[in-house]
Design brief:
The complex is a heterodimer of chains A (112) and B (115). By secondary structure, chain A is mainly beta. Chain A contains no helices and 10 strands. Chain B is mainly beta and 115 residues long. Classes of the chains: A mainly beta (112), B mainly beta (115).
């Protein structure tokens, strides 16, 4: 089962910041939080990941609470092309590898 | 780099037929994996490989076989197709695959319908 909980859907106005929340209250100390998105049934696309510090790259920012039980993905200036399903994933240990367990994600609709 | 490529893009099978979904990557990644995605659902891990000659089962391995004879290729075989295997199949690869910061890159998917 996925270790994360996300709202099923959200709307955002074009040009505004999109803030996508995620709860992961059972996360372990060495487990990373990853965000992927899937645009119109294409293959998932990596966005960002983090352990405990806030992270920023050219696509987004990731804010992780101090207790690591929740996080927020921020798309600073959402465009219509950001309409997609966004998956918050805790990468769990599986043998000697890390396994991505996908939940159902948040469908973000960016509106003009 | 072409990244992760998958063939075919679409496939229709009859119940009981067998087929192989192809996956290749040109990034010299050690870790490769197969997922399936049913309508309205997230992805579920079928099988994965941490390197040539090494494979292991994921969450939903029944009805599928894999092998990894080269670093580049990771084919998925459906032994006897069933309607329950109608899904979109994604292949992914990453440099190593260990817990931590390794990023997985996904292919465009194969859309399979079993009648």
């Amino acid at each position: 089962d996925a270790k994360t909980t996300q709202p099923p859907s959200m709307d955002c106005a074009e040009g505004r910041a999109a803030n996508l929340p995620c709860n992961h209250s059972t996360i372990s100390g060495n487990e990373y939080v990853y965000w992927y998105r899937q645009i119109h049934s294409q293959g998932p696309q990596y966005i960002i990941h983090g352990l405990k510090n806030n992270e920023t790259n050219e696509m987004a920012s990731l804010i992780i609470t101090e207790d690591r039980k929740s996080s927020t993905l921020i798309l600073p200036h959402a465009t219509l092309r950001d309409t997609a399903v966004y998956y918050c994933i805790v990468r769990v240990a599986h043998g000697n590898t890390g396994k991505l367990i996908f939940g159902q994600g948040t469908t973000l609709q960016v509106k003009p | 780099n072409a990244g992760v490529t998958q063939t075919p893009k679409f496939q229709v099978l009859k119940t009981g037929q067998s087929m192989t979904l192809q996956c290749a990557q040109d990034m010299n990644h050690e870790y490769m994996s197969w997922y399936r995605q049913d309508p309205g659902m997230g992805l579920r891990l079928i099988h994965y490989s941490v390197g040539a000659g090494i494979t292991d089962q994921g969450e939903v391995p029944n009805g599928y076989n894999v092998s990894r004879s080269t670093t580049e290729d990771f084919p998925l075989r459906l032994l006897s197709a069933a309607p329950s295997q109608t899904s979109v199949y994604f292949c992914a690869s990453s440099l190593q695959g260990g817990v931590g910061t390794d990023t997985q890159y996904f292919g465009p998917g194969t859309r399979l319908t079993v009648l």
